[in-house]
Alkaline shock response membrane anchor protein AmaP
Amino acid sequence: MKGLVKFFLILGAVIFFLFAVYTFLISVNILNLKESQKVLSLWMENIAQLNAGLIGGILALLSLLISAAIFYASLKEKIIKREIAFGNPLGEVKVSLAAISEFVRRLGDQIDEVKEIKPRVVVGKKGLEIYNKIILFSDSNIPEASDRVQTIVKRYVQDVLGIQEVQEVKVFVEKIIPREANTGNV
């Protein structure tokens, strides 16, 4: 796929370059506008003698492929990082975002007000961004519980995992549920 994308990017760039040169040559009167219009009209008459539908379809498909290739290449530039690296005296350390996410999920078990935590960890421009969807118990104070989740997650990620670049820890309260009472039946 990479070769096809490069081909269409180069083809598109060449077409745009030739159009720019053509426009420039007309604007500085190196090419006569009327003569170039005659050449273009003769060329179009010759093309019209061919199957116009087939040529139109090919041109439409070519335009579609070029635009799709440019769109794909622009998305490809934003490669999603799946790990974060930091220096250590003995060398570089890489921690996968999945490992950080699992670590944060397990932290939720240690927070009394939280029934469940679903973290999503991404690498931002200035460091980690940790987005947490949480399910709280109904007897929790939401602002205090949210603050506690943010503080604990940030502190543990920095202290235990050694990742100092925690840019932000966001909390989204997804549900508030009643706490299940232990009935003592075993």
